[in-house]
Amino acid sequence: MKIAFFPYESTENKYVNIIIEILKSINGIKVYPFVPLDYLRFSRKMWGANVVWLNWFELDHGRVKNMLKIFVLILLKVTGKKIIYTLHNRKLHNKDTSTLSRLLQNSIYYFCDIIIIHSKISIHDLPKKYIVKTQYIPHPNYIGEYGDSKGKEASTKLRLLFLGQVKPYKNIELLIKTASEWNPNEVELTIAGKPISEEYKSELLNLAAGKNIKFVFEFVKDDEMSEYLGNCDLLVLPYDISSSLNSGTVILAFSYAKTVICPLIGTVGDLTNKEFLTYTYNDSTEHLAALKQQIQKATTLKSNDNQIFDNWGQIMYNEVYQSNSKDKIKQIIEQRILK
After folding, report:
1. Is Transferase there in the keyword field (predicted)?
2. Distance (Å, rounded) from C-alpha 84 to C-alpha 135?
C-alpha cells in the first residue's frame, strides 16, 4: 500500500515524523509526500497512492489556495483514493475565518473516508452526520525524541515554562499579566520560542519590562528541548479553548516527566491520572482569574512539598509511556485505519 502524507515534514514539532515512522514500520507500507500541485499536474507518483493522509489541510492560505485544495479533494474522491484526515483543532486559531475557509473545512469532512481524532470530545465538534467516520487514536508520546531527560537545580521558587511558537492566539499577554503579579523570588516565568513578528516581540518585551519574565525569542532546537523542560517545575499553557482540542506540548511535557497548568482541553480530559492543574473559563476575565488561581495553588503545593511536581510528572510519564506508545498506535492503525 502506498500512502501520500501531508505535510511530510514539520519544523514545529516531531508529530509528523513520528506518525510517518509508525506507518513505515508496517509491513507493505510505503510513505511519500503528498504535494497537491503535483497531483493536479498528474504526477505519476501522486496518482499511484492508494491513500492520502491529511493533517492541517484546513489551514487558510488565501482564496486561491483554498479553492485549489477543494478541487484537489474532489479529484481525489473521483479517482477513488482513500482520504484520511486528522482533526487537530476545534476551529482555525484565526477567528476571522472566511466563508471559503469554512467551505474548505466542510469539504474535508464530506470527502474524507476516515476522520482521526486524538481526543474523545472531538466528536462533539463535528457535524453529527460525520461522527460515523471517526476513529480515535491516542496522540503519540515524545519519549526519547529530544534526547534524555535532564534534571534541574533545586530552587524554592516556582519555575514556569511556556514553550512553543510565540503567537497572539496563545494568550501569552494574559500569561505575562498573571505571572507578573508574583515576586521574582516566588515565581519565575520563561517564555521560549520564535515570535511571529518583530512587532509582536516588542509588544511582549514592553509588557514584561521589569517583571519576573525571561524571554528566549528563538526557535528551540531539538538538542535544547530537554534542557528547557528539565529546568522548570511546570509548563503553563493558557490555550484558547474555543479553538484548541489537542496539545502535543502537553504530551511532550508528560513524555519528559513534567506536568502542566492547562485549560481543560481534550488532551488532558482523556487522561486517567490527574496529576496536573487544570481549569475552565468562559471569557478572558474568567481566564485571568482561573489561571491566577492555579498558579497560586502551584506555589502553595511546592512550598509544602518541593518534590511534588517531580512526582506528578513521573506519574504522567508512566501513563503516556503505556497509553500513548508508538506500538499501541501502530496496532490501531493496522487494525482500524488501513484494514
Report:
1. yes
2. 10
Q: 96: pLDDT confidence band, cut at 50, 70 and 90?
A: very low
The single residue listed with the C-alpha cell 483543532 is: 89
Check whether 226 has a pLDDT greater than 80: yes
Alpha helices by DSSP H, the chain:
15-24, 36-40, 44-47, 63-78, 99-111, 172-179, 198-208, 222-230, 248-255, 266-269, 284-304, 308-323, 326-332
Rounded CA separation 137/336 (Å):
10
* Span 52-90, pLDDT tens digits: 999 999 988 788 999 999 999 999 999 999 999 999 988
- pLDDT, one tens digit per residue, over 247-305 is 999 999 999 999 999 999 999 999 999 999 999 999 999 999 999 999 999 999 999 99
Q: Which phi-psi region, left, alpha or beta, contains residue 240 (left: φ > 0; alpha: ψ -120 to 50)? A: beta
Burial 305-336 (b: 16+ CB within 10 A, else e): eeebbeebbeebbeebeeebeeeebbeebeee
In the CATH scheme, what is the code of domain 158-322?
A: 3.40.50.2000
* Closest to 162 measured CA to CA, from 258, 285, 305, 92: 258
Compute the CA torsion angle 86, 88, 93, 96 (nearest 10 deg). Answer: 30
Could you count the other beta carbons within 10 Å of the beta carbon of residue 281? Answer: 16
Least confident of 161-170, 230-239, 278-287, 310-319: 161-170
Q: Which residue has 512526582 as its cell numbers?
A: 311
CATH 3.40.50.2000 boundaries in the chain: 2-140+325-337, 158-322
Confidence (pLDDT) at 91:
67
CA distance 176 to 183: 13
In angstroms, the CA 63 to CA 268 distance is 35
Strand partners, 260: 235
